């Protein structure tokens, strides 16, 4: 069985493992105050081209989101998210558990635009309702779509005008920024959002997300929140070493490019068989619509997620590629699809 | 500079690193549903001699504590801890952040006995006060002391009689169970407490704590709580592989024994110079009382924590040893102490 | 200006005020442990025909809801509510502030049926999502509709089968139970739901809601939760005296009947002018659709809420009647509507 | 039986009841936006001699405390309170339930001075511990003592220097400000603390506390927090009418003076019998130390609280007087004490 189920099925890129191994017996300070972490943060600031941002390394995405949002928001303030938003559906109410409502906005492509958010602002008008204060977006989104620079500029402008924080969940940011359709870099991001994180777990690290806080007023005392929410890793250097390796020679981007290339290859092959897709997803997640019978056959050899039923005979499946996805497995999948399709 | 500052200064035991490396490119299920994690849990159950316990692997101790306590307690229920308890002072109010008061009990040796807890039960009598419901203890404690089996039996009996859960924080459980003065094993623990965790981070793992839930009524839906609190590691196998290696050939105990031996060596050397200690600590943390002037000199070559002032001229320092502590460094420290003491 | 804006514009029914005045200088126990409260609770149990329920008196509805739901639910459990549900939109995220997600269900008439809830159960399948555990309904609903006995029976059966608690917000329960279309009584309610509250504030009391807990497992330690959430009134007898008066001679029902009669009169008059309504609301809230121009004129003499725009020229308004609504004012309103309509 | 158990045993001062009765059938806006509440707030600002403060009316003290503190503090910030502090022991963990630790300071007289607080600041030094941010004091304290102006000035200066908010719980502020030993007025208070509340419930109102927010940065969006925590009273005018009556002709102070006079009378009588007191309490709560046998006899005719055991034969009792305490009952109590004492 070969898995297209997610992008965290394998361990870590061998380069990173090598760095972890080489430094293994050195002594270092705990809780992210070691020299590896400091170096990684300096390197990230260079890549982002902003020396004034604050950067904190986390183990996982849900923890990053819940720590950031609960630190940024006052008790009566709420987040706004697309109906597919990870914090809305797939984090077991982690944000609500810190006391904050997440307002759901129905959209079809996983992305928020000013016109999607406006109605929520118009209906939340007084103290009998929560106060919308933070817009949560993902790039790439949970259904594989990505934001263009102009889309993000519009959203950023709208958020500033309405005193909303703009927060970007970058669990799959590598794939988004390396998409053929992308026209942004890390530096653009840092200028357009108030905080975002760069996902390592889903792009070749053992684990690790780098939260970048761009807005000054959101920076104060942030390490208290990490510790309080259980996110301060004792051997913090594990994160520092990994992020340094990820960005030292652009390994982060190389891995994301490979993942995207594999997704493109899959997409092309599936398309050529005449199948359609749930969304236009130029990143490492694709959502083909296949007949149940074909799906059944593919399941004999491959692991993937059944996303949702489309009609009685067809379902959407999700295929995810990663830095570790093997081209021969992709080609075999396409071949098996062709045969199944007969 | 050589560090006696803590037991998480180095990386991971080379045996474990080897296992992580060998499995690195295999694909596995995410979120702890992989075969490595399953194997590790089976192995742990054998070691504990209880097939009926539930075991969950966490990344760190604060997260384990906050997830467990918030899952076990209803909103009006409180934890009771010794005044040195980790949850009380060194977790940034993590338990309170989940809504629960921690009642502090003044004791001198970091350990709770029935007579220490009784007054708290007697003063919390009605609905105008929180309801004490869980007794939190650590073994070894935050100041290096350990529980004897009969002490734990007494406490366990008292808790049962008073319908209190007994929870044991085992961040340094390896050192406690391998102390020369210890008379318990994992199986005894599981029979005496309602839940406890076996600490990996401070005993040779990259990171990792294994929470063991012994009481049936505390088990239900526990994975929801892990996810909600941000503790469900995507590449969960990292924890599974490590715990399997830790317990496969008793590496966990061998490492703890080494840490204890190094602490004993330090203690003997310091004692022979005529210095006293803050507590009787038969584990891997010792707390000698040294003249400021001696401390200053030692600080030129060694890292350690200044614990507290004793009087104008003397302070307590904390020295921590680990699986990775080198005997020659310990001997050098004692030699330097001798010379400083002159 | 005469107000149809809500049902808490006036003070308290004179009978109740008389009882408060007569007992004013007596001494009594605090925090609801007085004899008036005990008598009121006994009387309520008789009216409900269940001696085994637990009853607690609260000052207001939001506090009742947040105390009950946070006491009933474990951290990972969520409530389900109709999109118009009071807890969902008009309590400033009070439920989320206690840590629980409220899942919104789109319905057109403010009522939940099994088929509305089923999809939420089907999509919340594992520990990456919250666990739906409590169904929140209102009777009458926030848009004036009411549940029939068979509707509630179906819902109750469905909830039992799916291990969901059924909770009924009775802020306007008086009006619902006295509606011409109602076929239930308090006793039916207590047999069909797990907990509900009988609203006094919106039916002639100064303030006060009586929470009835029917399900045994939800009763334990409930007063701790009231105190913790700030809801334990020092002079608790104020609530006891009022509820005793409300139910001693069925004043509660008489007042609700008057409110409904006034709403019916309004509805008839508005209907006869040819206007339509947003919903079929056989209770004390009605939602006529009127031309903007007519609304403007009425606003010179009357206070009411503009509910929502229907199209460019028409809006829904909300008219609320109460125990204190005067028939001559209702007739005047209809007359003014006729003239405005010309 | 006559009760000296608390100062909320009776209803409301007849003057206030009259005002409630006279306005009873008028219509008014809900949720504290009525003209009565506005007038009361204006009057309070005059009495405080500060037009720039924000004032919000609450139903009860626990709710005032929990709403204020949770609105003022960020998640990692903690309150500091004396070991007798109401929020620390008698509010069922209400502050912790909003996520904040309350740090307990051992003092003997219920009052905090800079030197009591300093050690807490010195031990809470980094992100592994909560950040002390708000000092909670009560005046009069829970054991009847009061602050002098110079004591409060010192504390205020210390808090400003250390960036701590100073919050004063005024559940019994009337009694404190009308004590023979008091040298402050409401205006002094408003200049020395960041927020405080004026207690109505324990000084002749049906219920009600007026929270005064003096510090600008604590004012924003405060009504959202009241609503979210369930404290926004629908018929808010009940509070407005009461506070207007309380302060229109200084009824508030007259009632407090009466309560204090009755406490003084009790104190003098008890003193003359040779009994000692737990504390020097120049307010409406006194804590005589009496032999068990005397206490038993008094319990036949009077209700009061047994505070704590002093030794085998003696206990402290608490006697509380109020605006409604009758002089003849006080004299009878003293007489009975004399006879019991024989």
Automatic annotation (TrEMBL), chains A, B, C, D:
Signal peptide: none
The name this protein goes by in its record: Low specificity L-threonine aldolase
InterPro entries with a match to the protein in the record: ArAA_b-elim_lyase/Thr_aldolase, PyrdxlP-dep_Trfase, PyrdxlP-dep_Trfase_major, PyrdxlP-dep_Trfase_small
PANTHER family for the chain: L-THREONINE ALDOLASE-RELATED, LOW SPECIFICITY L-THREONINE ALDOLASE
Biological classification of the source: Bacteria, Bacillati, Bacillota, Clostridia, Eubacteriales
Recorded family membership: Belongs to the threonine aldolase family.
SUPFAM superfamilies in alphabetical order: PLP-dependent transferases
Pfam families: Beta_elim_lyase
């Amino acid at each position: 069985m070969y898995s297209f189920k997610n992008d965290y099925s394998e361990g870590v890129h061998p380069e990173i493992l090598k760095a972890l191994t080489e430094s293994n017996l050195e002594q270092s300070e705990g809780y992210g105050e070691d020299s590896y972490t400091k170096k990684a943060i300096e390197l990230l600031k260079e890549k982002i081209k902003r020396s004034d941002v604050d950067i904190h390394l986390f183990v996982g995405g849900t923890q990053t989101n819940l720590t950031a949002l609960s630190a940024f928001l006052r008790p009566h303030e709420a987040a706004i998210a697309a109906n597919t938003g990870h914090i809305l559906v797939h984090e077991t109410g982690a944000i609500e558990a810190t006391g904050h409502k997440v307002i759901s906005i129905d959209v079809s492509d996983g992305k928020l635009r000013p016109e999607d958010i406006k109605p929520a602002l118009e209906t939340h008008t007084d103290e009998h309702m929560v106060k919308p204060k933070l817009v949560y977006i993902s790039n790439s989104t949970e259904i594989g779509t990505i934001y263009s620079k102009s889309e993000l500029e519009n959203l950023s402008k709208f958020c500033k005008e309405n005193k909303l924080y703009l927060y970007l969940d970058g669990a799959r940011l590598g794939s988004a920024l390396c998409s053929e359709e992308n026209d942004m870099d890390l530096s653009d991001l840092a200028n357009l959002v108030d905080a975002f994180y760069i996902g390592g777990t889903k792009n070749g690290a053992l684990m690790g997300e780098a939260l970048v806080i761009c807005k000054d007023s959101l920076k104060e005392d942030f390490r208290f929140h990490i510790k309080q929410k259980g996110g301060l890793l004792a051997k913090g250097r594990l994160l520092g070493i990994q992020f340094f390796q990820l960005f030292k020679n652009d390994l982060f981007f190389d891995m994301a490019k490979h993942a995207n290339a594999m997704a493109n290859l899959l997409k092309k092959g599936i398309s050529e068989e005449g199948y359609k897709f749930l969304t236009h997803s130029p990143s490492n997640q694709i959502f083909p619509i296949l007949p149940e019978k074909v799906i059944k056959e593919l399941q004999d050899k491959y692991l993937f997620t059944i996303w949702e039923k489309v009609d009685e005979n067809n379902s959407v499946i999700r295929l995810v590629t990663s830095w570790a996805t093997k081209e021969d497995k992709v080609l075999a999948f396409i071949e098996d699809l062709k045969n199944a399709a007969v």
